[in-house]
């Protein structure tokens, strides 16, 4: 079936393009998106929608104005500029020193009319600079006055490395709009040929990170001035390179999108991630094929795998050479001051080259895509293996802010067995198997010291006594091997100043709770931010006093999580497990919690909270309480499947509980208008739902029953079930 025919059938049958059900697309509540482009349509219709978009664009390219309103999407504005003039301002690229001594390249604007230099909040965070308190109001930036967020000192360097200067800059949320306003094609102006431009990408529309004031302008300006023909920019020589200014002729079409949907996902109705058994996406299929084609085993036993690169990566990498060179020069200066460091570093790099891990790049074709890795040395005197460690910084951002590490993921090995003998055998097999591939397992930790006594000191995570309370980081949590328990560390800082929406989001985002163990607290944080969001305040405007008071109370409760202890052990995997899962909803949120009930080595029954998940009710559209109860039931069914995959135990009894008789009736009837796909999924699931009377463990979350003491919090971590299963 051709894409045109697909689109014609969908349109004539009045089918929703996103979920393929027969209802108006304006009323679709599905949050699933196209797997190819993340567009608001089904993956099957990707080509059809892309062709349709091209037709609509070509038919409307002769006009300018706002785009048609798209339901349930962020506001868009389309602009078409035909044969227009673009005012080219004096932008330049400049290397700025980070707090760790490295350099990153920022986009700067040279402004003769500014009395003080300015830098964006984003740039300060990327640089990791310490700021000083400085209250000032800056006028003339955008509309109205902007309040400064402190003062920083910045060390700047030419991208060509031949000029340095230091200045102070006020920190603002935003310095200026993207410059130029639209991207245009470079012209072959004869008078600009062979000039060392301060901004080689002067034609690319990018954010301004730094505004340099008139004092810097007078400091770097030089005598050289080159004028070209009409409609061509003027070149002025500076110590940082040649800067361009003037009018240029452009022919451009651009689309500006104000993307606010990511934050709204906090309170949209969503599902658990699809099962891992689902079909692979085109990108995942490409990775599988790439692995099969490029993996080979060397004579030494090691494995060699090609580096998987995303499609069209060459257009996304940007420029990284200047930053790598700048950091290398910084490294050379450090070597001059530390001869021992210099000798160790040179020895390491020479050995690296002799082993064939790297080679000299001769006759590099600059037209081909490349990423230059900055590198630096880290000395750890207390290291048991290598005192000097050379770090190849794959996280270094290029001019396009892309990183190589975005395409990779690596984690520690986590596992366990039911007996110490099984653990020893597993440990031995793992060490020998990976050693054959040239991979040495190190940094071992265990809740049983017997498993570590035969290991050498360089194989342990760090020398520690099992009698102490030292904890190890595991998946962002803290694991105490001596007590075999997980714990949290409160990441929220105590501040007495007024709270803005930006600060609120920043602090809430630090609460890392991947398994939902802190759901009674995290849902309060979500509700708090949802309330602030609904007021439509600006990001740096103080929230009302009522929200500030709620935040102070929540912050006080968050101090308890330092003492919040969760046992890791959930029982012997060879014995019978019971899963008791609860779901519930209120007019503000819906939630579910999954508990695993088993027996310990003494035969005593134990219950543990395995995972919980919460979701806020949507703001834009009022959803009835029964429908939210149904959302919770579907979320619970999908979460149970995830727990079953993790347990890898077929000897499991599953009990799903809800206090809503309406939901039980709907699951039985499988009919509720346009959302019957949810009920079909629930009715076809092997999970059986039952009715629970009284306070459920889902209600402990949705009703925000938060204990004031750690001892009372244990009632949320365990269940005490002694009743009879009642079929709904």
UniProtKB/TrEMBL annotation:
Pfam families: Peptidase_A17. Transmembrane segments: none annotated. It comes from the Eukaryota. Keywords: Hydrolase. Residues 106-143 form the Peptidase A2 domain. The keyword Endoplasmic reticulum does not apply. Residues 55-67 have a biased composition (Low complexity). SUPFAM superfamilies: DNA/RNA polymerases. InterPro entries: DNA/RNA_pol_sf, Peptidase_A2_cat, Peptidase_aspartic_dom_sf, Retrotrans_Pao. This is Peptidase A2 domain-containing protein.
